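Hello Y.,

Per our agreement to keep a running log of every chain we model this quarter, I'm adding this entry. I've kept the format consistent with earlier entries: sequence first, then predicted structure.
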Amino acid sequence: MAQFIDITRIVVGSEYLTATVRVADGAPLMTSDDLEGTTRVYNLLPTIIDHACAGDAGSTFKDCMGDTEIAHLLEHVAVELLARTNLTDDVIAGRTWREVAYDRTYSIQLPCVDDVLVAGVLSSGIWIMQWAFSGGQGAVPDVNATVEGLVQLVQNLPTEEAPE
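Predicted structure for the entry above:
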């Protein structure tokens, strides 16, 4: 499979990073379209089912994970990765909605604790989902190493010096 999900736009605001993503033609749009891929994601991130979720299927992500939009699953993967970095004390929640004007396109909004970190967890989430929904071929993603890499990336960014 070609690239499973493409990020087509990112807007960084003072509180949120909003990414517009497009699910590839021929790729499943719903988790129920590929339950094996969905299960691979769950096996990597089992605590994802405990996330609070304001969807209409129930109060946790477990209630809808088996039949929700692929982009909604990506939102929860990114939220899980962000939470695992321990770089924020806040309760982390995102939001996903379909962009009705564009086919197979969704917006995912995540709290912007750090724009580099949030873009990194979103990109890492896409990488995990690419693996999961393309048959789980190759090395299994190492979630702990991914999270540690994201933490190191953010901690090693140069700090801005105040102008004199």
